[in-house]
């Protein structure tokens, strides 16, 4: 692990289009929920906050994808997000984006990159 990086999870915990891994980060000095998912073979991470109203997206812990497993969905508003960039593609916040977090996958592990935000703990 490089100085300043924080372990999120083993890479095998993230299956393509499958459940996400929840964790917490410090964002502007406050603990915030966050999540990581795998899509198209890549790992992406975001604050777990809808761009429309600040509520968590997952309808059950770790359930972020819609039934097609190609869009992230807000369980409260039905907003759909592209998992590759967090941009809202459908719903009340169309054009807005989730707040992305920089991650790196290395040696079978997924890390929050140094300087992204400070990881606090897994949920």
Describe it for me?
With 123 residues, this protein is mostly beta strands. It has no helices and eleven strands. Strands 8-4-3-2-11 form a five-stranded antiparallel β-sheet, with no helix packed on it. A three-stranded antiparallel β-sheet has the order 1-10-9, with no helix packed on it. A three-stranded antiparallel β-sheet has the order 5-6-7, with no helix packed on it. Mean pLDDT is 91; it is low at 118-123.
- In what order do the strands lie side by side in the largest sheet? 8-4-3-2-11
- What is the N-to-C succession of helices and strands? EEEEEEEEEEE
Shape: globular
Gap between N and C termini: 21 Å
Oligomer classification: single chain
Mean pLDDT: 91
Number of discrete helical segments: 0
Give the radius of gyration. Answer: 13 Å
Low-pLDDT ranges: 118-123
Structural class: mainly beta
| Proportion of residues in β-strands | 35-45%
Question: Largest sheet, if any?
Answer: 5 strands, antiparallel
Which percent range fits the helix content? under 10%
Number of strands: 11
């Amino acid at each position: 692990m490089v100085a300043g990086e924080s372990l999120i999870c083993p890479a095998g915990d993230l299956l393509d289009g499958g459940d996400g891994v929840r964790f917490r980060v410090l964002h502007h000095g406050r603990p915030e929920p966050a999540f990581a998912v795998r899509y198209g073979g890549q790992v992406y991470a975001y604050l777990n906050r809808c761009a429309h109203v600040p509520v968590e997206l997952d309808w059950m812990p770790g359930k972020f994808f819609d039934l097609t497993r190609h869009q992230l969905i807000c369980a409260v508003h039905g907003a759909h997000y592209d998992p590759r960039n967090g941009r809202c593609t459908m719903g009340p916040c169309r054009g807005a984006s989730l707040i992305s977090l920089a991650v790196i996958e290395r040696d079978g592990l997924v890390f929050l990159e140094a300087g992204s935000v400070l990881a606090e703990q897994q949920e």
